Amino acid sequence: MGDSSKAAEYYEKAHEIYKKALPPNHPLLAECYNNISQVHINKGEYTKALEVYEKVHGIYEQALVPNDPKLAISYSNIGHVHNRMGDYSKALDFYQKAHKIIETTQPVDYLSLAVSHSHFAACYERMGDYTAALNALEEDLKIKQDKLQAGNPAFGPTYCLLGRVYRCMQDYSKALQYFEKCVTIAEETLPEKHPNRAVMYTSIGDVHRLMGNNEMAISFHRKALNIQENIQCNPLECATTYSNLGETYRAMEDYPTALTYFQKALQIREKKLLKNHPDLAAIYHNLAKLHLATKQYSIAKKNAQQAVEIAQEKLSPNHPHLLEYKKTLEKVQKKS
Predict the structure, then answer these.
(1) How many domains does the chain have?
(2) Between 20 and 30 A from 51 (CA), which of 129, 175, 183, 220?
(3) 296-333 burial code (b ≥16 CB/10 A, e <16)
(4) Is residue 183 assigned to a domain?
(5) Are 195 and 240 in contact (CB under 8 A)?
(6) By three-state DSSP, how is residue 148 classified?
(7) What is the pTM of this model?
(8) Is residue 300 one of the residues assigned to a domain?
(9) Residue 187 within a domain
(10) Nearest Cα to 287, choosing from 324, 250, 322, 312?
(11) Neighbour count for residue 113 (Cβ, 10 Å)
(12) Does residue 111 form part of some domain?
């Protein structure tokens, strides 16, 4: 975390200088706050990031006209943090505000419009509305294919999201196809140890696990960890890789190793996320399935109940994850 700490230190120094020299609503102060917020995001400190982004937005609302593109970026940034915090309805609301500005700006910034559609898709995917996510990604892809050459790095996030949606829809061959397209772009455009490459490797690994290719899955998760454990990156991304490894070892019935990785993931998520975050529900559910397999029914029941309680609070009643958690809880209750 040394790099993030140094960056935060420099940004704070710049902020102190600007604060003394500039009026409180000066756009340069907002830019400084944006930099500080990004450091918090990279460290998985989403509550702090949100607080700073809201300061930025307050400055922009005073200093800019209502349809200024910077306000759209500000709305999107706040939306991103809410999405990462598991507040998907709030995120969608801010993305819609950003989209409204982008749509009415002349001349139309088509690539910003495409990115806006991808923001909707990311939100819909987390909300479990996979049809809406695909529709939004179709709009995103249509614009990019019209305006950009094939292989442009801007396609990467779109392919990644398509992979995630098709994985959720259990169309694993399509998911793998899109994740591989994304990783091809990443390997051509990003440094070897870039954290985004790690995210793609563990995503590919997870699809291989779902397809029953456990050894292949482990090799991709190891590639991800080789990056994540050796550079400064968002610890929550590392937690996802640990969780994916845990699921793979659980599938291989190596329960002690699976438990080790689940505990690593849980430790990070409990430290970094609010107690009602959907990603905590996911790890509790993984632990419930593990303890069910090892016949530790009382622990499995507790974990399954934790998953269901969070999901009932944060997800829609028909969200696929909530339905899955309830199904696991029913299985445990029959055993206990």
Answers:
(1) 1
(2) 129
(3) bbeebbbbbbbbbebbbebbeeebebbebbeebbebbe
(4) no
(5) no
(6) coil
(7) 0.91
(8) no
(9) no
(10) 250
(11) 17
(12) no
